[in-house]
Request: fold
Amino acid sequence: MQADDILQRPAVAIVILTWNGRKFLEQYLPSVVRLPYQPLDIYIADNASTDDTVDFVKANYPSIKIIAIPKNEGFAKGYNVALKQVVADYYFLVNQDVELTPNCLEPMIEIMESNVMIAACQPKILAAWDKSRFEHAGAAGGYIDAFGYPFCRGRLFNIEEQDTGQYTDAREIFWASGAALLIRAELFNRFKGFDPDFFAHMEEIDLCWRLKRAGYQIHYIPEATVYHVGGGSLPKENPYKIYLNFRNNLSMLFKNYETTDLIWRFPVRILLDNAAFFHALFNGRRKEAGAIFRADWHFVIALPLHMKKRFDTWRQYHRNRVAVSRVKMSGYYNKSIVWQFFARGKKYFSELP
Reply:
């Protein structure tokens, strides 16, 4: 590629937030540094690792920039802190346990450059442990149901589909996975990034929801592919991960629901959480039940904070709105995924009515 062509392309910063991630970086950083896209800067944002992550990167990848975060701020605030120190047109946020394919950036940049209303996008996310299968955290694009349960094309609850070419169409979605999220830097900063109180989990869905309410779009780009291990920081069954998912989901819904939805959908969601609590308890999964109980009570105790966040979010929405809201036009499933999956036995995205 000629120097003039490179200068005309948008600058991309790949930012990998890591915590004690030496083993993953050793395995997957080669796929990052081999990317041919230019102009490109690569950053490791280290969340106060206690292993030799930073020393390993400095010794083996001197061209990679290190952002040292003084304490473990989690995924949400950790990225907020790191990205204040990064200058680029696009941020490509990549988990420490993700392998990139050589040409994953170009098709995403191309589609975003073609439409200024696209705020963020994600690639096809397949499992690193079985590259023919979709991975839990993002699969072929994120959706959300009427009661705030996120799911994906290619993944409903714990069922991950084989990739047989069924999701090769680029399309607008509701949310893009934080495992491999390409987002316009200006919009990330204007919308104040991730909610720092989330620590980890649901923060990318919350941000995508806020962007969509302002009229922007989120897209899935199947021509781009990455492979994700998943659970690189916390495994799926970890009680703290369960707690964060339930707690952050309630906070996200309270912030972003339309008022009419908040009045009746939110109480239904609380009832569904109670059902999940009792199901876990009666099936001997006491740690899981305890995590759900703590999450719901944390929401109740912090209700004044959530009310302030809702007010601030709506003020941000009206200040940044650029078009009629598209929230319910794409990626929004106006039924219950819980009912479809558990009661009606719909295990695959293509089976949903």
Q: What stands out?
A: Residues 259-282 form the longest helix (24 residues). Residues 239-322 form one domain.
